[in-house]
Amino acid sequence: MSTAAQIPRNIVFVHPDLGIGGAERLVIDAAVGLQALGHQVTILTSYRDRNHCFEEARDGTLDVRVRGDAVFPSSIAGRLSILCTILRQLSLVASTGLASNELKQLDPDVFIVDQLSACIPFFRLLYPKAKILFYGHFPDQLLVKQEGGVKQTLKSLYRVPFDAFEGWSTSCADGIVVNSKFTRSVFKSTLPGVKSRELKVIYPCVDTSTSSHDRSNATIWPDKQLLLSINRFEGKKMLDLAIKAYAGLSPQDRAKAKLVLAGGYDPRNAENANTHKDLQDLCASLNLTHATFRSNDTALTNLSSEDMDVLFLLSIPNDLKSRLLSSASLLIYTPTNEHFGIVPLEAMLAGVPVLATNTGGPLETIYDGRTGWLRSPDKIEEWTKVMQKPLIPSSADKLRAMGQAGRAQVLSQFSRTKMAQSFHDEIERLVQSNGPRAPIFGLPSLLAMIFAFVFAALAVVLAVTRFVPAA
C-alpha cells in the first residue's frame, strides 16, 4: 500500500447537491484527503448554495464547479424530483462534455460518482479513457418514503422505470464501493446488475485532527450523568426507544441522570414537527418532565439550570454538540438498519461508550462489551439495564476504559487519512486495470433507457394535473 500519490491523478467527483449532510461530508473529506496525497481534484455538482455548504466547498480549498443547473428545475409543481435530479445531472454531463471542452481540459483519469448514478454510462461514452468509481451510500429506490395505500401503489408504479435506470447505470461503473458491509448486502439484494460484482467497503470518516479528549472541565450537569441521543427528529430514528428505556429507570436512578435528545430539526418539515410532538406526548404519558430548546434560544447557554427529566434540543450549533459529547456518560443510538452511522464514531472519538441497536452499520463499528453495547430494539428492558451502568459508581473505571478503547479504534480506523488512502488504492487499482469493462449496452439496459425516457416524457405531462406523486 502506498502512502502518497506516486503518479498524481486527475480526479473528478460528481455529486448532485453539495449541501450539508452525511453524503456531502464524505465527498468533501475524500476530496480533501486525495488532494493532500498529491492528486488534482475537481468537484462537479448541479447545485451549491454558498450559504449552506461545508466551508471547504466555498473557501477555495477545493475546486468546485456548478454545472447544468440552469436548464431543469429541482422539481415540477413540487413533484417529479427524481426525474428532475436525473435530468439536471445529464445536463451537467452535456455542459461539460458536449457544449464545451471542459471535460477535455479536466482530462480525468477517474470519475468518482456518488448518490446518483445517472451520469455514469454517458461519461463513459463521452470520455472512455477515464475509469468510473461509484460510491454507494444506499440504493435510492429504498430511500423513498413509504406511505401505504393507493398512494403508495401509484408511487411504486411511478418509480419502476427510475429504479430500473438506477440499476443499469450503477452497473456501468468500473468499480463500486459502499459505506458498510450492511449496505453492500442491500445493494446486492436490490440491484440485480451488481449482484455478482465485487463491492468493496470504504468507511466514512470523522475529523480526528481537532479532537480533544479533555473531559475534566466539560460537564454541563456536574451532579447528573448525561444520557445523550443525537439524531434527526424523524420517526425512523426510533427516538421513542430512548425515552421508554429511560422511563424504565427507578425514580432514584432518574434523579441521577438526564436524557437529552438533540438533533436536526426543520420547523417547515411536517415529519420533524410531528415526531417532536409525539415524543413530547410520550414523555407526558410516562410522567417524565420535559422541555424544548431551539438553536436561537438564549437559554441554551445555561442548560445546567434545567431540572427536567428529558430535554429536546432542536438543531443545535456545533459548539454545543461538542460540549454535549464531552459531557456525556453514554451515547444512545436508536435507529435500526442504519446504513453506517457517523454519530457513534463522533461519540467514541470523544471517549463516550455507545449503546446502539444490534442492526446495520453499528455492528461494524461498535464492539459489544469493549467500546459499547449492542442490544435488540425490541427488548427495552435491556436498554434500561445499560442506562443504569453510568449511575453505578463502581462502573466508572470500566466505562472510562471503554471510552478509551472506542477513541483508539476511531483514530486508527476512521480517520480522513485512512479513508483517503482507501480511495487512493482503489483508484490505482482501476487505473492500472486492463481487463474488460462492464458492458454499457445490452437488451435489458436498452429497454431500461427507452422505458425511462418515454415514461419521463409522460410524467412531465401528468405532473401538471398533479396525478403523479412526489418522489
Automatic annotation (TrEMBL):
InterPro entries recorded: ALG2, Glyco_trans_1, Glyco_trans_4-like_N
Compartmental location: Endoplasmic reticulum membrane
Chief subcellular location: endoplasmic reticulum
Domain Glycosyltransferase subfamily 4-like N-terminal: 20-209
Keyword Transport: no
Sorted UniProt keywords: Endoplasmic reticulum, Glycosyltransferase, Membrane, Transferase, Transmembrane, Transmembrane helix
GO molecular function, one term: GDP-Man:Man(2)GlcNAc(2)-PP-Dol alpha-1,6-mannosyltransferase activity
Pfam hit, one: Glycos_transf_1
Pathway assigned to this chain's UniProt record: Protein modification; protein glycosylation
Family annotation (SUPFAM superfamilies): UDP-Glycosyltransferase/glycogen phosphorylase
Catalytic reactions of this protein: an alpha-D-Man-(1->3)-beta-D-Man-(1->4)-beta-D-GlcNAc-(1->4)-alpha-D-GlcNAc-diphospho-di-trans,poly-cis-dolichol + GDP-alpha-D-mannose = an alpha-D-Man-(1->3)-[alpha-D-Man-(1->6)]-beta-D-Man-(1->4)-beta-D-GlcNAc-(1->4)-alpha-D-GlcNAc-diphospho-di-trans,poly-cis-dolichol + GDP + H(+); a beta-D-Man-(1->4)-beta-D-GlcNAc-(1->4)-alpha-D-GlcNAc-diphospho-di-trans,poly-cis-dolichol + GDP-alpha-D-mannose = an alpha-D-Man-(1->3)-beta-D-Man-(1->4)-beta-D-GlcNAc-(1->4)-alpha-D-GlcNAc-diphospho-di-trans,poly-cis-dolichol + GDP + H(+)
Gene Ontology cellular component annotations, sorted alphabetically: endoplasmic reticulum membrane
EC numbers on record: 2.4.1.132, 2.4.1.257
Highest taxon above the source species: Eukaryota
Transmembrane found in the keyword field: yes
Positions of transmembrane segments: 446-468
Domain Glycosyl transferase family: 222-407
Family: Belongs to the glycosyltransferase group 1 family.
Cited PANTHER family: ALPHA-1,3/1,6-MANNOSYLTRANSFERASE ALG2 (PTHR45918), ALPHA-1,3_1,6-MANNOSYLTRANSFERASE ALG2 (PTHR45918:SF1)
Function: Mannosylates Man(2)GlcNAc(2)-dolichol diphosphate and Man(1)GlcNAc(2)-dolichol diphosphate to form Man(3)GlcNAc(2)-dolichol diphosphate.
Name recorded for this polypeptide: Alpha-1,3/1,6-mannosyltransferase ALG2
Species of origin: Cercospora berteroae
